[in-house]
Design goal:
Layout: E1 2-3, H1 5-16, H2 19-22, H3 29-49, E2 57-61, E3 65-67, E4 72-79, E5 86-96, E6 104-105, E7 107-109, E8 112-119, E9 125-137, E10 143-158, H4 161-173, E11 187-198, H5 210-216, E12 220-225, E13 231-237, E14 245-246, E15 249-250, H6 251-268, E16 272-278, E17 282-289, H7 294-303, H8 314-324, E18 330-334, H9 340-353, E19 358-364, H10 367-374, H11 380-405, E20 409-413, H12 418-431
Parallel strand pairs: 3-10, 13-16, 13-18, 18-19, 19-20
Antiparallel strand pairs: 1-10, 2-4, 4-8, 5-6, 5-9, 7-8, 9-10, 11-12, 14-15, 16-17
Length: about 425
């Protein structure tokens, strides 16, 4: 237990009262005597009534997991001994990927004194709660006690799964969300034979099965269905450029959320989905598998994807990916490049993949750079920034144009349009039976 700043100020005021007698004014000595006659008993009484650290009980309510980019509430509920405690404050020391937390004052609650924070993790990984600091004061606020409790708790930060599931439900339930997307029907589209039906006016005459019609002596038409069990490989570049922040999250986390939503759509459509990551070398290869239950395994694999500060080696990563695929697949590559010079080697390796597979190439546009490009400059610095950003935009468009010439389906979209654009491309690839 230690004195509060208020007690220190009062003690200092009492010492100042000793100056008049020492300066030759002995008749004012009653001031210091009266002050200490009142203040000393109050100081002792407040110390007696002050709550003791031994009687403090508390619990810290923390979530089991955190989702990247989402604030999660965390609460400390403390019960102090006696009913005379005042001024309860608490602070949490965090480490890892968590943002720092401020000191908060407690509020009275039915189960004690409650202090709340919001945990926010801008990156995936391990979030650690190192220590808990609690401070409470005596009834007259003359004494205070500090309690430090080492926690050593670790909470895993995983991709924003609730957002992915909510977006998936919205995509498959709301017509507005699917505006501009091509909806696929399993029966009636595709080239795989499904059944025979009687030919009616309005049916495609090319679907008439003449042999079956002659055998049954009535016109019968063939019904086709879209082929299933295609292989979709979600390929994530985890190199240095993908670890850069883009808004509240990194480019890699935006790419993971879009890839998981696409994986949900693919699994629901009956296709097999796999995950492949690389930076300076291949890091993870989750084999393709089908069934909607595979989504949980896909989410768990995405949660293990690590950030990297190494440059991406497209030659090694994409070559190993091509060697691992024994059949024609849809490869969705989410990556980033800095300039046309560094993109040359990338285009060569993507060009080799597109000879055997269907490749969807996705990069993330920075909305801030777009605003700087299109807004009217009001100063020389703004004009210089606009010139530089427009030059970067032209180089970026040139790379995407060259990829399209190679047969790659290249996309350059903002983070909020990653998932809808990927699903639109996926549905078009399926409807055209390119895989």
């Amino acid at each position: 237990m230690r004195p509060t700043p208020i007690a220190v100020l009062l003690v200092g005021a009492g010492l100042l009262l000793a100056l008049p007698p020492s300066l030759g004014l002995p008749h004012l000595a009653f001031l210091i005597a009266g002050f200490w006659a009142v203040f000393a008993p109050l100081l002792v009484l407040d110390a007696v009534l002050a709550p003791r650290r031994a009687g403090l009980s508390w619990r810290l309510e923390t979530p089991e997991v955190l989702h990247v980019g989402v604030p999660h509430p965390i609460a400390l509920v403390a019960r102090l001994p006696g009913t005379h405690a005042r001024g309860f404050e608490a602070r949490l020391d965090t480490a890892g990927v968590l943002s720092p937390l401020p000191t908060r004052r407690g509020e009275p609650a039915s189960d004690g004194t409650r202090v709340t924070w919001e945990l926010f993790a801008p990156r995936r990984g391990a979030a650690r709660l190192e220590a808990l600091w609690m401070r409470f004061e005596s009834p007259l606020r003359l004494w205070q006690s500090w309690v430090t409790v080492p926690l050593g708790r670790e909470v895993t930060v995983i991709p924003d799964v609730p957002r992915v599931k909510a977006a998936a439900l919205r995509f498959f339930s709301e017509r507005e969300f699917r505006t501009g997307l091509k909806t696929e029907r399993y029966i009636g589209d595709g080239s795989e034979f499904d059944s025979l039906k009687e030919f009616v006016r309005g049916d495609d005459r090319r679907a008439i099965d003449w042999k079956s019609s002659a055998r049954h002596r009535r016109l019968l038409a063939r019904v086709h269905r879209a082929e299933r069990n295609h292989r979709v490989i979600l390929t994530l570049d985890t190199g240095r450029l993908m670890s850069e922040p883009l808004g509240a999250l990194t480019r890699l986390d935006h790419a993971i959320h879009g890839a998981l939503l696409l994986g949900h759509a693919c699994l629901r459509s009956g296709d097999q989905v796999g995950l492949f990551t690389f930076d300076a070398r291949a890091r993870m290869a989750h084999p393709p598998a089908g069934g909607i239950g595979e989504l949980h395994a896909l989410i768990a694999a995405a949660a293990r994807v690590q950030y990297s500060h190494e440059e991406s080696n497209f030659t090694l990563g994409l070559t190993q990916l091509g060697q691992a695929l024994s059949r024609r697949s849809l490869i969705v590559l989410l990556t980033e490049f800095a300039d046309t010079v560094s993109a040359t080697l990338m285009m060569e390796n993507v060009g080799r993949l597109v000879r055997r597979h269907v490749v969807v190439f996705v990069t993330l546009r920075d909305p801030g750079l777009d605003r700087a490009t299109h807004q009217a400059p009001d100063s020389l610095d703004a004009l210089s920034a606009a010139v530089v950003t427009r030059g970067l935009r032209r180089e970026r468009d040139r790379v995407h144009l060259e990829l399209r010439r190679l047969g790659v389906r290249a996309l350059d979209v903002t983070p909020d349009r990653v998932a809808p654009s990927l699903i639109s491309e996926y549905l078009e690839v399926r409807s055209r039976e390119l895989v």
